[in-house]
């Protein structure tokens, strides 16, 4: 049943991703009135699907690759809806909704049989660790996206062409980029702390010599530095994009490091 | 062209396309006299309902008249009204007049309300002006069912055009383009600070537009301090903080402003690239928007290269306005399609009303026959149970409705066809 709900959600995300194009690019309110309710409905089915998926697997934790992917898509969709609720802009949906659609597509139509190598006791702490780190990833992705859009809008305004109509004003984009970063930071800090405590209790000190874990702490440090620089100098535009891109690359490296880690893997080799 | 049982719709007028300002100003009606003029129009022979639309670009008489043959008679009557009311010789007006009847009058009114017939296509004021004329006409009892329905429809069409096209989404005047650009940079202008350097009508107009959109502080710098103080006093209001700053301190204080409007007559540039870098540093990279209305320019165009500085001179603003105007023309084509569709719908609705008396007569006649036949058969049906009697009643009603259906459909169709012919 969870697959059915996920397929419904993915289909609805697809519709929302299409509807958001005329809503944002041509400023058609009618399409916006379609895109947002459809995205909210998709989010609801998505949530139900994930809950059923975890319940059916009896581990109640997203530990398999497709489950993580589904959870990441859910967090991204939530982030988009939060940004819409706060700033009344659907512009980010042009990029975020297709990503959510693609992230959900593979688990929905090719769930696979990948088994986890993790010994999971159904601890709520591991769930929190995963959810918080994914929320931080989603926040960073949105922040990077907003920084790029800032650059696009700034270039257009400087070229003396009428601003890109479908993009929010520069200050709003900057706020989205900054606030999402600020939101992501406590998520990442708490996520890493919880993960470290659980690892300390279950695996011991050797866990902290794993390259994946070391990279994760490097990622946290990069995040701190980025927030510090942005706050201190009010960094915007081109340099903000470079900085966000660098941290995002670190995040991708950390994500990819799961494949090489001896102790922190989603799936068995 | 067809007339309806409701009367004949005639629209007579002049506008910016047909008459020069010298003629238009002689026919212009101030809002204080609009009620009196509408009342006078209503008293003209053959006028059942009437409305006068008078703006700086047009004077139009929208009238519902007794069904006359389509001759020059009613045009002459309206012309006489214009001649008598405004004391303008008919020969001075006649060459500039246009007249629309029925469907074309409806189309014209929808186009006017939707701002498709305006001098600046898409400008929003015209809808308010049509509404004002309508309100006055209603107050003096000059509009009732037909014109009331037509005007309500015109308002709906105008709103539809605004919501379904982007005809009014971009600004076409220099001052409003400046405000649009400021909003594109800062989002809301609430609490923003504007610095006026120099004096000039256009820069003050732009500043007033910015205040209307929420700017909270106006700083004024002028080489003559007393002039700066006077301008600051002109902007003074409880909602706006104003301050005349000494010209010598301009470079120390300019970074307080989010938006700088310059219009001095200085022969050399006031702000160079390095000033921009300096301001941005002090503002911790918060953007600054320079609107340079001066000729020769007050702001070095290279300041635009500084990240966070946006410099627009008068030519840039004019180019944006021209681009917006071109956008509006494209959107106007889509708006014309909406208007045509709505005219068609309105005409169909109007003519379906024409068929109403005939439809009612047919239905009443059929009902009378049904009741008479039931009464004749009453004795024979007396033994039936109440349920059976109710079934017979329902059966006769259903039969009558089904027998009438083709005739009623044909009647509605014929009025529609008559209209499209």
Number of strands of chain B: 10
Tell how many strands the DSSP assignment of chain A holds.
Answer: 0
Strand order of the largest sheet of chain B: 7-6-5-8-9-10
Bulk shape of chain A: flat
Average pLDDT rating of chain B: 87
Beta content of chain A comes to under 5%
The residue ranges of chain A in which pLDDT falls below 50 over 5 or more consecutive positions are: none
Quick description:
The complex is a heterodimer of chains A (269) and B (421). With 269 residues, chain A is mainly alpha-helical.
Protein architecture, described:
The complex is a heterodimer of chains A (269) and B (421). Chain A is an all-alpha fold and 269 residues long. Helix content of chain A is 75%, strand content 0%. Chain A has eight helices and no strands. In chain A, helix 2 packs antiparallel against helix 3 and helix 5 (124-158) packs antiparallel against helix 6. Chain B has 421 residues and is of the alpha/beta class. Chain B contains 15 helices and ten strands. In chain B, strand 8 (259-263), helix 12 and strand 9 (288-292) form a beta-alpha-beta unit. In chain B, helix 2 (31-42) crosses helix 6 (125-139) and helix 13 (314-354) packs across helix 15 (386-420). The chains are: A mainly alpha (269), B alpha/beta (421). Chains A and B meet through helix 5, helix 6 and helix 8 of A and helix 8 and helix 13 of B.
